[in-house]
Amino acid sequence: MKAALGWLLRGGVLGIFAFLIFGPLANLVLWAVAIQWYFPHKLPLTYGLRYWGEVFKPTSDAFVSLGTSILIAAITVLVCLVLAIPAGYALGRRLLPGRGLILLIILLPQAFPSVAIYLNIARLFYMVGLNGTITGVVLVHAVHGLVIAVWIAAAAFAAVDVELELAARNMGASALRTALTVTLPLAAPGLMAAAIFVFLESLDEFTGTYFVGVPDITTLPLMMFTASLAGNYQIAAITALILLVPSIAFMLLIERFLNTEMLAKVG
Amino acid sequence: MPERRPFSLLLVAPALAMVLALFVYPLGYSLVSAFTARDGEPTLDNFSKTFDLYGADIVFTVLIVVVSTALTGMFAAAIGGYLVLAAHPIAATLLKWLYRWPLFIPFIVAAQCMRTFLAKNGMLNNTLDTLGLVDAAGLSGLLDWRGIIVTFVWKETPFVALLVSGAMAALDRAGIEAARNLGAGGLRVLVEILLPQVAGVMTAGLILAFVTMLSVLSVPIMISGGSPTMITVDMAFRVNSYSDYGVANALGVVSYVIAGLAAWVYMRRNVAGEGAQ
């Protein structure tokens, strides 16, 4: 009897918890498949995928902004990796004088409230004509992505055994050849994780794009924001679901890596 | 390999240059701009104007962020504690699977979810009404300061809970078992044994959550359009409607100070902790 009561209590609390986690998402899904839904009806009056057709029309704003978002995220990943691989190597191998200070400067963007930074970047970009350009938005995303990219890359290179590099050098491989055939492949999984993180961050970024992208660059989050404020809840919900796909996929993918040991290494 | 040092500096130089140009320089620019009048003279007018116009919003912002951080910490502690202490592996597994979902959901998507979920005719009110717990006709929805707090806590709890439960799982179980054998209940073990040992991780996670909440623009706009609102919204408004960078940057400085105070609390804690050891 007591055990049954205990399970009832646990079930109740877990049920409420599950409702609070999934309720908001379920409401979003409902809006994505609703055609007509207004107060005081608790559920949509008519269901259908009509708005999906509108979103996925090749000429639609959503489709164009999806393309812009992916393009920006891909270039941001490239920029971040090009900058983070050498920096992560030097930091991970502890080769540097003033390593702590350099790490601190690179981590700074994460430690400050960013809105005031972005509005000043926008003001500076306006003077040099970078406002409203892909380049401008990529630069803003990259400086933010760099924090996580350098951090993970440093951890990845720190985990590569120096003995293996020395062995390659002893057998006559040049420094470049050693880097390309020994060090980089061994650090590749970590660098891949960094790339995925940066890609997702760029895809989801709102505030920086809001200030720097205007008036010409509309990424998916900006388009969702505009649709939502205009009361186009179906369009906003469908766009939000598109943004959710990579995030959820990533979460399920790294489920097994997202454990204490990995976090301990990064810290 | 000290002989490679100059070369190593070259390796970090591009990344460092990027952060200096696109973060440190704009940061300095915002500080200078906050103390400069439109004619270029140094002034404190921006700040007096900021406190006149947005004093209430500053208080509102601090309250929201502090309450959200406190609630996030409480939920993270409860989740972490349950995962470590739970006698029922099935319940613990379910909880572990459940709590991580919002972790990778973008803020803007969370805001859109909550904009519908917490509305007058949203799923929360409708469900409570269907269960007969409330009368939805008399409810107004939670799309105001409460909605902002709910969204922040929903979004930030998984992150802090992940850090805290990881740290708790790594603790020596002997202390927990000893306390249990002496008759301490689960709550008492959590508060007196577990939490003091993971306080460092907990504070670090909460500070990151705190700064993140101070940086989010989409949530306050989408959840609560009215006044008072958070200072991130005021900054955007000042720039977009008046091109008033002076007041916008003064608000920015206020947000740095709020974040700085939080970091100071963290540092002081750390120093105190080291002194005790």
Write the topology of this structure.
The complex is a heterodimer of chains A (267) and B (277).
Chain A: H1 2-32, E1 34-36, E2 46-47, H2 50-55, H3 61-92, H4 99-107, H5 115-128, H6 134-158, H7 162-170, H8 175-204, H9 207-212, H10 220-229, H11 233-254, H12 260-266
Antiparallel strand pairs in A: 1-2
Helix pairs in contact in A: 1-11, 3-6, 3-8, 6-8, 7-8, 8-11, 10-11
Chain B: H1 5-34, H2 45-85, H3 89-99, H4 107-117, H5 123-130, H6 145-169, H7 173-181, H8 186-215, H9 218-223, H10 231-242, H11 245-276
Could you name the key traits of this structure?
heterodimer, A: 267 residues, mainly alpha, MetI-like fold, 2 domains, two-stranded antiparallel ribbon, 12 helices, globular, disordered C terminus, B: 277 residues, 11 helices
In a nutshell, what does this entry contain?
Chain A is an all-alpha fold and 267 residues long. Chain A has helices at 2-32, 50-55, 61-92, 99-107, 115-128, 134-158, 162-170, 175-204, 207-212, 220-229, 233-254, 260-266, and strands spanning 34-36, 46-47. Chain B has 277 residues and is mainly alpha-helical.
Structure description:
The complex is a heterodimer of chains A (267) and B (277). Chain A is mostly helical and 267 residues long. Chain A has 2 domains: 2-47, no CATH class; 61-266, MetI-like (MetI-like fold), CATH 1.10.3720. Chain A contains 12 helices and 2 strands; from the N terminus they run αββααααααααααα. Chain A has a two-stranded antiparallel ribbon with strand order 1-2. Chain B has 277 residues and is mostly helical. In chain B, 78% of the residues lie in helices and 0% in strands. Chain B has one domain: MetI-like (MetI-like fold, Orthogonal Bundle). Chain B has helices spanning 5-34, 45-85, 89-99, 107-117, 123-130, 145-169, 173-181, 186-215, 218-223, 231-242, 245-276. Chain B contains 11 helices and no strands. Chains A and B meet through helix 1, helix 3, helix 4, helix 5 and helix 6 of A and helix 1, helix 3, helix 4, helix 5 and helix 6 of B.
